[in-house]
Write a structure and sequence with these properties.
Elements lengths: L5 E4 L3 H11 L5 E4 L8 E6 H4 L21 E3 L1 E3 L8 E6 L6 H8 L3 E9 L6 H5 L8 E7 L2 E6 L2 E6 L3 E7 L6 H11 L10 H21 L12 H16 L16 H14 L6 H7 L10 H7 L5 H11 L4 H13 L1
Parallel strand pairs: 1-2, 1-6, 2-5, 3-10, 6-7, 7-8
Antiparallel strand pairs: 3-4, 8-11, 9-10
Helix pairs in contact: 6-7, 6-8, 6-9, 6-11, 7-8, 7-12, 10-11, 11-12
The chain binds NADPH dihydro-nicotinamide-adenine-dinucleotide phosphate and ketopantoate.
EC number: 1.1.1.169
Pathway: Cofactor biosynthesis; (R)-pantothenate biosynthesis; (R)-pantoate from 3-methyl-2-oxobutanoate: step 2/2
Protein name: 2-dehydropantoate 2-reductase
């Protein structure tokens, strides 16, 4: 194990994809799995480049989504019981509701000034994680709009290119920590993806997830079908509701540029992500299909809590996801709104 070793938590769609990305950039990857052992070789199927959803050229500096990845990369997969070192860098690729427990499960294997990187959709859970970190640790939140679909225990399909950003969620308590971070940052992919105001990016991505994820999950469609009627009208009305909400006071201090939350900009962002990941089944689609817990509470639930006014569409989407017995009734109501 070297200082360049990264512990990735979660062998799901995003964890497998990022294991392959880091491993193909000469980072030693230790992949922590919970249920199914992915083994030591990660296989990548790349719809993004085959379908022209990414950049044709191999660009090894662009890990945000356009790089063509090696079809097979080598990692070391292990369970929490097999951990026996302390890590400097941990990338958590679990669902938002598993973030705190995932960190807690490996806390004793983190160095006191480690960088904790996250790649989860949704908001609210980073604030829950902060009190659990060791005092010298830095929390870096990441957002990605790259599509990833888990095919089996060790195979992931990249189903669309998109941007990835990381930014500091909480400055470290110790001023000299910047120095200990530098060698890893400069040598690895994270460096080129850093942005100053990550909360702003998280809120932008939240709007995309508030629209694409519940609609694709409820109506059992691929992301690209959000661009077809009647879902397109529904997506537009949801985005309008969100744009109004972003103008309200509680979210304003978190935003660096209010114009990026105009209806025009938000709807463009939703359409662009739907188009670039058009072959993907969203993560919430997969969760609902397989009867797993969804992230709706950290997505629509977060927006509803922040809003000073009612958000009828987000509330209906949230209830439709959370109450299977009333789902058909809520879906009917949503379609009536879309076609009215
Ligand atoms: N898939 C996509 O296209 C995109 C996903 N995202 C976001 O990325 C995040 C991850 O999504 P995705 O990869 O699709 O989700 P998955 O459900 O496919 O993967 C999450 C993985 O985390 C594992 N896990 C949870 N807790 C632990 C733990 N304590 N120790 C070890 N492993 C653990 C789960 O294990 P188990 O199998 O046991 O449940 C599961 O394999 C989500 O927030 C999602 O919204 C963002 C952009 C695109
Ligand atoms: C970018 C997108 C919409 C890709 O499907 C996603 O974030 C998700 O599935 O959770």
């Amino acid at each position: 194990m070297t200082q360049n070793t990264c512990l990735i938590i979660g062998a799901g769609a995003v964890g497998l994809l990022w294991s392959a990305k880091l491993a193909s950039r000469n980072t030693d990857v230790h992949l922590l799995y919970r249920s199914h052992n992915p083994g030591n070789h990660i296989h990548i199927e790349d719809d993004a480049s085959e379908a022209g959803l990414g950049d044709d050229a191999r660009d090894i500096d662009d890990l945000s989504g356009n790089a063509i990845l090696d079809p097979v990369t080598k990692v070391k997969s292990l369970t929490v019981d097999e951990l026996d070192h302390k890590y400097d860098n941990i990338l958590i690729c679990t669902k938002s509701f598993d973030l705190v427990d995932a960190y807690q499960s490996i806390r004793e294997f983190t160095k006191k000034n480690a960088n904790i990187w996250t790649l989860c959709n949704g908001m609210g859970m980073h604030d829950e994680l902060l009190p659990h970190l060791k005092s010298g640790q830095k929390l870096w939140a990441g957002v990605t709009s790259e599509g990833a679909l888990k095919i089996n225990h060790n195979t992931v399909k990249r189903t669309g290119s998109g941007d990835t950003f990381f930014g500091i969620y909480k400055p470290s308590d110790k001023s000299n920590d910047v120095e200990t971070t530098q060698p890893f940052l400069e040598d690895t992919i994270f460096h080129s993806l850093l942005v100053p105001n990550i909360t702003h990016r998280m809120l932008e991505k939240l709007a995309v997830n508030c629209v694409i994820n519940p609609i694709t999950a409820l109506f059992e469609i691929r992301n690209g079908e959000v661009l077809d009627e009647p879902y397109k009208s529904l997506a537009e009305q949801c985005t309008k509701e969100l744009a109004d909400c972003y103008l309200e006071a509680p979210l304003q201090p978190l935003i660096s540029n209010a114009a990026s939350f105009s209806f025009f900009n938000l709807v463009n962002r939703v359409y662009t992500v739907a188009q670039l990941t058009r072959l993907n089944h969203s993560s919430m689609h997969e969760d609902l299909k397989f009867g797993r817990k969804t992230e709706i509470e950290n997505i629509s639930g977060y927006m509803i809590k922040q809003a000073t006014n009612n958000l009828p569409l987000q509330s209906t989407l949230l209830h439709a996801i959370l109450s299977p017995t009333k789902r058909e009734q809520h879906k009917k109501a949503l379609l009536e709104i879309a076609t009215s």
